[in-house]
């Protein structure tokens, strides 16, 4: 039996503004946690881009992970209207040239103070859809109505829900029945039989491995998938193959 390869779609580096048991301020700290958990590759964003200024955080991220094999940049984005980021066409060209593999956004008054509505973010979301660049959304920040609207308006845009829990299944399952471009990651998918039920009903192709380090340990997500009562092929798909498939379509 082949060794399972783990590809994390949800982790970050950078100092956070409040005490935390598992602060990962830099790449060496992330590498240490990944080695402990047996994780080979990761999509990484910078906490300064999430909690402070996205352009600066994105720049720091590129500096931190430059030359680091197996670590791929994720940028936190803003709509271009205030001039903090260039118009979407230029922004996507820059992201492509710098090897950015996915995007995150933090809308809402308590975060980056914008809306995902078409009049604000439509040009940005259309550009992401054209590039097939995965958009990672924190389900604790966006609403399910927003998710549904994005799936309807941008059907070719891969949307990954981070921090998804088993208590969200009543929202997720009807959307999975209608849309193929919606994915979840497993860092908080920790209800008894939650992974098994999702795989039994819908298969494993829309489930991704994620740790949410440093908020959780990488070993927790690895154990959750390793001991799930699903087939070896389904485990491999979730651990890395599904994310590989999504990323192969980026910029195509």
Task: Please give a structural write-up.
The chain has helices at 27-37, 47-51, 54-65, 88-97, 118-131, 144-153, 169-176, 194-202, 218-226, 232-248, and strands at residues 7-13, 41-46, 71-76, 102-104, 135-138, 159-162, 182-185, 207-208. It is α/β, with parallel strands linked by helices and 252 residues long. The chain has a single domain (7-248), classed as Metal-dependent hydrolases (TIM Barrel, Alpha-Beta Barrel), CATH 3.20.20. It has an 8-stranded parallel β-sheet, sandwiched between helices.
Summarize the structure.
The chain is α/β, with parallel strands linked by helices and 252 residues long.
Helix content: 40-55%
- Spans of at least 5 consecutive residues with low confidence: none
Radius of gyration, rounded?
Answer: 17 Å
What top-tier CATH class fits best? Alpha Beta
Q: Give the structural class.
A: alpha/beta
- Let me know the CATH homologous superfamily: Metal-dependent hydrolases
Number of strands: 8
Give the mean pLDDT. 94
Distance between the termini: 33 Å
Largest pleated sheet: 8 strands, parallel
CATH topology grouping: TIM Barrel
């Amino acid at each position: 039996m082949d060794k399972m390869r783990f590809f994390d779609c949800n982790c970050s580096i950078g100092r956070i503004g409040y005490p935390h048991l598992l602060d990962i301020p830099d790449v060496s700290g992330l590498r240490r946690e990944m080695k402990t958990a047996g994780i080979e590759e990761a999509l990484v964003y910078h906490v300064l881009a999430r909690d402070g200024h996205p352009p600066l955080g994105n720049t720091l991220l590129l500096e931190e992970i430059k030359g680091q094999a197996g670590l791929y940049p994720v940028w936190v984005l803003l709509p271009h209207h205030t001039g903090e980021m260039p118009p979407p066409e230029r922004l996507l060209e820059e992201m492509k040239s710098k090897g950015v593999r996915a995007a995150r956004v933090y809308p809402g008054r308590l975060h980056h103070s914008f809306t995902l509505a078409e009049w604000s973010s439509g040009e940005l979301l259309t550009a992401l859809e054209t590039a097939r660049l995965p958009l990672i959304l924190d389900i604790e920040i966006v609403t399910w109505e927003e998710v549904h609207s994005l799936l309807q308006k941008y059907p070719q845009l891969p949307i990954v829900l981070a921090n998804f829990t088993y208590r969200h299944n009543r929202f997720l399952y009807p959307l999975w029945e209608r849309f193929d471009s919606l994915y979840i990651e497993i860092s908080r998918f920790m209800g008894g039989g939650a992974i098994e039920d999702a795989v039994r009903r819908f298969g494993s192709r829309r489930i991704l491995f994620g740790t949410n380090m440093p908020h959780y340990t990488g070993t927790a997500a690895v154990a959750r998938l390793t001991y799930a009562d699903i087939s070896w092929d389904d485990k491999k798909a979730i651990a890395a193959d599904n994310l590989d498939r999504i990323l192969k379509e980026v910029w195509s």
